[in-house]
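Response to reviewer comment R2.3. The reviewers asked that we include at least one raw input/output pair. We reproduce the pair for GRPD C-terminal domain-containing protein here without editing.
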Amino acid sequence: MSTSSPATRSLSEVSTSSAEEVMRLSLDLVAAAGQTIGFLRDVAESHWLHRTPLLLEAIRRYDELWMPLVSDLRAESGKPPMILPPLDVEWVWFCHSLNPVVYRQYCESRFSKLIGKSAIFNQENRDYAVERCREIWVHKYPSESFENESDSGDLHNTKIPQTDYLLGEVSKQRYLFTKFSKPYMLELVYLIAAKNRYKDFLFILQRFPDSCSTFVPTSDILLMWITHKSYPTAYAMDVKEMEGSTKKVIESEESVNDEDLEAMKQLWERAFDQPYEKSGCPAIGGSRGGDGLKPPPIHWAITEVDANTKYRQLLPRFLLEVNILVKSTPVTKTLQTNKSEEFLRFQLLRCHRDLKINNPVSSIPSNSWRKMVHLYCEFGTKGMAVELRRKGGFCVKGSKRADYKTFMWNELLRAPSITLDGVVGGRARILASITPPAQAPYLLKCVPDRVTDDSGAMVSEVVLKMNQYRPQEGRWLSRTVLDHAGRECFVIRMRVGGGFWRRGTNKPTVVKWEDRCVEIREGTWSYVAGSIGKAPEKVIATATPKKPSQGWHALWSFSTGHELFIRSEASTTMSFDIKNTTSTESQVRLVSGRKMQYQHEENDGEEEGFVTLVRFTEENPSGRATGLLNWKLSAVEFLAEEDAAFVLLLSTSILRSVSEMRREDVGSLLIRRRLQEAEHGARDWGSVIVLDGSVNSAHVRPWYWNAKAVMAREGVDYARKNYSAEEGSDELYMQALFG
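Raw output as returned:
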């Protein structure tokens, strides 16, 4: 690194300390915001809670039972009681408190005081508070059920004066959780940074109340704001001096025009010399969508269960969002250089070194921040290098590096605002921000490998010598499963032949149809010489072909307890049915093509090979896509809640059945050698997704948009010409696969 460049510094060191000194909050917003996200998630998953009859009953219970109860208890103790109401009542209370003016008027007109909420953040304490409330409720209201039983038919027809208003408020906030459903929003470092930015936001409301006609919050500030408002007494105390300005803050469901958003950005930059929007913190509303940006083409979901922790070789995949913004330094105009010959290059340190984003220095504004890079990448990319380069060098189109700055993800995570800035070459201020890494869907692909025998050893002269030339019995087509980083994690084997090969006398023969099973072994190959090795010992799942019932063309019985039925509707159309013989907790459906969140306007027109895995549960009665398979290319993507072995069995079984039904090698099953892969680290699969149009490559888009280009294999023709007689001829495998 050039010694002329100042050291990278945290924005907390350059932003004004006035907001920290002036704004004092009486509530632990970090803990409260985490609790708010969990509460909104519970509400979103409680589909019963959004039916109108039940909401009307919840409003009645809130107004006639809960508020008088909590008011009486507060009068006895002088402070909010440490109890919590049932979920339906708490939801109405939460929505009511989001309009502080109306809520205050309601409380003062009925109870002559503002009713506050106890700060209970620990889950055990919350459970206790609900149970304590149940005891008090049953004692005070013996004829009223603690739970909402509106579906029982015993409805109260009383309509309170606030019914229409509260029903509108509750209905308006039904999808509020979608704004805070990104998994990184629960991370402590994100919440701490959000609290600090919220205090800056309040500082602006207090010091510059007339600078904007409306104040547009970003998603992190919005989270803190609604959390703050949901604790009415704390909110009233903290914003007392800026009550007029808070009325100009845009609500979560309101639309925003671009002029108001631009005015807010400029005000923030003047006040703090920082860009207003950063990674994970888009402005809400505006012409770009409900929360400021189009939904990213990444299926992120908060998950508490990872079904794959039992597989030691399968490591989770973590993604983060990256924003790089640039602004000219004040001394740029005095530098005697030709800016037209200079440009900035942005490049990841690992996993996708082929990615190079260039921007001319002459395009960098001097009076505002400009976003140069916006992407999602794996945490394994380590960081990003920003280079100042000048045209020229050893070739006509070459360039020389004049200076550079490196932003490491680990260093950014240690920065209080998850943001760092620095100067490159004295010309440009570079500001990098990221979101905390969050677990993303698994990505697995199956690549061809050598034929193995019944013991799992590759059929090879090397193994024969090690076994003192004892013939290797049995023949299995083998596939190595690689994760997103190219690491081996499973081996899939498909039984094809029995017997052994001996020069001039014996050769393997096809096994019976019902014996052509599929097995998955956990672990990596044990290599004994070069690429020759033995499959891992542990078999974790199997699939066995069965005679299908009438109307179906194929049936597979899985060791996981599932049965997969396959039918060919037309030349390229497939239909499926899955039955679970051991559990009824959830239903699984396979749908041909890229559906739900995998359906995108930029998808290529090739739907054949894609199958969407949809799971139905009580929380998601209409179904939720938990995986995407491309059996033709042997590539799968799935959420952590899905078992990798089950998904791989689905993909392999479908490929086997389609190959048999069409009597052709639709998925390169006849290839029996490891094919050449792209150099590791050059453009690793799924390592980066660029959201803007700055890079025109299928490898920086979601893989399923153009799967053929991303999963392209090399050396297919060459591989088919180099098989030994010991492995078995093409005829053996064609007879086993196609009948």
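The radius of gyration is 31 Å. The longest helix spans residues 52-77. Further pairs are available on request from the corresponding author.
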